[in-house]
Amino acid sequence: MKAEISWLDDPQTFRINQLPAHSDHRGYATVAEAAAQQSSLVQSLDGTWEFAFAKDPQHRPVGFYEPDYDRSDFDRLAVPGHIELAGYGQIQYINTAYPWEGKHYRRPAYSMGADRPEKGMFSTDPENTVGAYVKHFTLNSELEDQRVSIEFDGVEQAMYLWLNGHFVGYAEDSFSRAEFDMTPYLQDGDNVLAVEVFKHSTAAFLEDQDMFRFSGIFRSVRLVAKPALHVEDMTIQSGVDDAFTTGDFKLNLKLSAADQLTGSVHVSLMDDSGQPLWTAEAAASAELDLATTVNHVHLWNHHDPYLYQLQIELRDATGKLVEVVPYQVGFRRIELKDKIMQLNGQRLVINGVNRHEWDAHRGRAVTAADMAHDMQVFHDNHINAVRTCHYPDQDAWYHLCDRNGIYMMAENNLETHGTWQKMGAVEPSYNVPGSLPQWQLAVLDRAKSNYEMFKNHPAVLFWSLGNESYAGDDIAAMDKFYHDADSTRLTHYEGVCRNRVYADRISDMESMMYDPPRAIEDYLQNDPDKPFVNCEYMHDMGNSIGGMNSYIDLIDKYPMYQGGFIWDYIDQALWTQDEVTGQPVLRYGGDFDDRHSDYEFSGDGLLFADRTPKPALQEVDYYYGQHD
Amino acid sequence: MANTTKLNVIYGDVTLGLSGPGFHYIFAYDRGGLESLVRYGKEWLYRTPKPAFWRATTDNDRGNGFSTTSATWLGADMFSTCTQIDVAVDGQATPLPIAPENNKYSDHETAETVAITFTYTTPTVPATTVTVEYVVDATGKMTVNTHYNGAVGLPELPVLGLRFVMPTTATGFDYQGLSGETYPDRLAGGKPGTYHVDGLPVTPYMVPQECGMHMGNDWVKVTRATTQNNADPDHQPFSLTFQQNGHPFAFSCLPYTPEELENATHIEELPLARRTVLTVYGATRGVGGIDSWGADVEPQYHVAGDIDHDFSFAIAGVE
Questions:
Q1: CA–CA distance from A291 to each of A254, A269, A521 (Å)?
Q2: Average pLDDT, stretch B46-66?
Q3: For burial by CB atoms within 10 Å, which of A2, A296, A453, B263 has the most?
Q4: What pLDDT, on a 0 to 100 scale, did the predictor assign at position B3?
Q5: Which ipTM did the prediction report?
Q6: How many angstroms separate the CA atoms of B134 and B88, rounded?
Q7: CA neighbor of A238 nearest in space, from A228, A248, A229, A224
Q8: With an 8 Å Cβ cutoff, are A618 and B207 in contact?
Q9: What is the CA radius of gyration of chain B?
Q10: Which candidate in A232, A468, A494, A521 is catalytic?
Q11: What strand order describes the sheet that includes A247-257?
């Protein structure tokens, strides 16, 4: 298999040799490691990498991945991090139009006809910057003699991977984890890992979110060893009976083995103090289904995010412990009953916010400290829900939401705004994915990555199909995928309001953005079919959040009004040095000579870009506090 | 020796002086306003206070075109002129006491109270007028009554207030009102109390814009420690208190005028802070928030240009 640059131009090629998406569980070699959350089976590759930047594909260092390639003139670059913030590519912020607006006339492949594949669009794109990354590593002893895979948590926007000169695979979907099997190409001693990252590909049409347009390995990279017996995937269903007193626990395990699949599986479920409630033993097999019930179950919700401890222990045929997989379990039920979304049998009121991952120094390469700070801001201001606008976030965020009882609208990585809205008008003539078969598999893959990765988090109540991408068969297929895969959650998608013939096939809730309170009342007063949620409201751009009570008053007037997500959590602005005073200043769209731009529209947060609160935050604290 | 129970009145040729223990005010006919407000030798005014109509465009204003439809108020904020001055001593109106009318007076004139009213005419089409009446008593307490004359055809007002620009930046201010920055349609989260604010913070919105509004106040006390008086080496803090007169008032206390904020696209473009700009508002438009590309502020938070508005406050007398 050889890497083909033409894959960049083909919407139907988005994953080559990638391992299937699976649960975000982590394997540990020992119980002690699991308790300390430090797995010796994991070797981080974060840190300094060799790096070479090319302004377009034609000037990229072809063959740089060969072990004997002369990389003496390569620079050094920190991973994770954005290429543009290291000074290698122009920073650009743009909202609705595509980043090449005014520079290239482009139509998505096949959007103008099945005979229009638009070959060469990105493989010969003069603005398609390329980052050549190389990392030398020696496998930790704890990972030796086992199957080893590599995990890329986030690479924007298309990546080719080599190890020791061997082509391994290709991936898109900047915000989902990409995993590849390293085992066949690993060698003793020094290994040469090479990643070629392109800023643009056909994925660019699917990633037109209202944000700065970056590229690079912007999330962590790690090697993961799979012991002789390994939990490849696991699916937890932790529902509740109709009386909300008995927990209904179902566990599906998929195991893999280095060679034959023999040994035993020991599963235990404990309360949050570690008291065992249930244990089960089973012989290892490719797939196992275990179940139990928990009496007087302690339900999970915002105010009492009670988590049980699940622990899976795998032993090989000799009885030796080879892998420990812990996971936190929350028992709760989210359902649509009598046209009202109910959590544990009670009407849900969403006091939410849309949160882009953002750090004014690091862009979207947010840190654990950023996430902890954000969770504290949620706590202090009665925010009980977050929408991961408009892509999957770093995995740690979902665990934080589990522990802090934050309801999640988990959105997959999709926005194609510029393909259907132009000059404010709805004009979907070349909308993707639309009903185009050539784009359906790519968007379904993004839904699958989102579902598989986060399916075991009690915090996730809703799967969101993406943002501002109009509506057609392809998004209807995503809705169907989520419902087929997961009967325990609801789906969300606002864009169906633009093409309501799909209303019965897309989104369990009626979702609007920036609807005036009066328009919401009109909907709610005219025999509505679905409960109403603002997926985006109270646009906090500059000095704003006036008139919030007109939305909040709806909560008590209309049971089918179930709150919403303020737009948005934090201003997108970047620390740069003022060219006049040399002082650090916060700059936004257009400030980097980037054109076409939407300038200050990058800043709509409840917090300023440096995470200090805007004055309006006290208003949110007050009103959300009334219905908390 | 000036008496201590009545106002000393100085019937000047181009000014009217009023003084008493610890205070001395000068109303300038040629400048068309209150030119000097001195307490214990400290000057509080850089230029004469004047009616305030403009607010630096917010992102929501830009989105719904409010600044465009109400742009005339920017001109009025900068170029309204004083077109009439009326003086009343102890409640008796008197012709403008300038020469030769004032030749009958001496250096020992007194009064219980003196009221002087400045009429400002706006360069809007149609024009309208705002009257600002200063009523001073023997304690130096100055009651300020402002009246706006609505006129059919005038667009909605961003704000209606009276703007005081002070010679130097304040060290801070204290007020009794609501916490944080509040607006008519965004004050529910403001907790009542007495607050101290260090310096003159400008809310660092990504694009500088209207900010720093405080709704529903009983009083605000501005404190400074520097002057421009070359002969005054003293750096002891000195304060001036603005207090409500019947109704709580709104104010902002910033280092910049709306025009300076309007002109900047980034915080770092704002000039070095030199002045204190204290504006007391009788009416202010809401900030809105439904969206930033067309949605209007809710109707009840608009300030109509075609109806009359009145507001009053007082500058506390000398303790």
A1: 15, 11, 45
A2: 98
A3: A453
A4: 56
A5: 0.95
A6: 10
A7: A248
A8: no
A9: 20
A10: A468
A11: A229-240, A247-257, A287-294
